């Protein structure tokens, strides 16, 4: 049985966009198309899984460990719960887009590595409430990984 919904249509649209992106990079040189191809392949994998979960309920049940929200049967109904959930969802989306905007601004003002260091540390320390040690270790590890892979490995100086 196939269940068609807005969510399934959106997931299918994202899947098609990933396919188009992968197709458009086929004729490019491998060094130019490396990152777009990686992103497109990951997008196809994740969006394809989401399409299967949205269109086919048995697949969603089999892959329930991938679904962050409990199923509709386990949630209670009530206008107060829905209103609170809608407000929390809206607040979360605003916070997410604000976070992305600040990250992009940091990239513009500093560099990719410094923007990642600052935003990851702030996220881990103040939003996720991690310890100072863990926040510093994760931040330095991520910065070192970005430096080694992109600056040393791919010889891209944009990240500095």
For the termini, the CA-CA separation is 52 Å
Q: Structural class of the secondary structure composition?
A: mainly alpha
Integer count of domains: 2
| Strand portion | under 5%
| Amount of helix | over 70%
- Mean of the pLDDT scores? 83
Number of helices: 6
Rg is: 20 Å
**Shape, please?**
globular
Largest beta sheet, briefly?
none
| H/E topology pattern | HHHHHH
According to DSSP, the number of beta strands is: 0
Oligomer: single chain
Which regions have little confidence, pLDDT < 50, spanning 5+ residues?
A: none
Topology diagram in text:
Blueprint: H1 6-24, H2 30-55, H3 57-62, H4 79-109, H5 112-127, H6 132-153
Helix pairs in contact: 1-2, 4-5, 5-6
What's a quick, concise take on this entry?
With 160 residues, this protein is mostly helical. Helix content is 75%, strand content 0%.
Report on this structure.
The protein is 75% helix and 0% strand. By secondary structure, it is mainly alpha-helical. Helix 5 runs antiparallel to helix 6 (132-153). The longest helix has 31 residues, at 79-109. It is globular, with a radius of gyration of 20 Å.
Q: What would the keywords be for this entry?
A:
160 residues, mainly alpha
């Amino acid at each position: 049985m196939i269940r068609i919904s807005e969510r399934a249509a959106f997931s299918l649209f994202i899947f098609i966009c990933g396919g188009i992106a992968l197709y458009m990079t086929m004729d490019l040189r491998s060094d130019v198309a490396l990152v777009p191809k990686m992103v497109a392949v990951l997008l196809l994998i994740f969006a394809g899984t989401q399409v299967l979960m949205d269109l086919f309920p048995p697949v969603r049940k089999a892959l329930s460990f991938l679904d962050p929200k409990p199923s509709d049967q386990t949630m209670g109904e009530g206008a107060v719960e829905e209103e609170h959930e809608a407000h929390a969802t809206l607040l979360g989306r605003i916070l997410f887009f604000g976070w992305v905007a600040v990250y992009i601004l940091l990239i513009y003002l500093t560099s990719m590595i410094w923007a990642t260091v600052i935003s990851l540390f702030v996220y881990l320390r103040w939003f996720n409430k991690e310890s100072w040690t863990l926040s510093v270790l994760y931040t330095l590890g991520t910065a070192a990984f970005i430096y080694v892979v992109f600056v040393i490995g791919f010889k891209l100086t944009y990240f500095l």
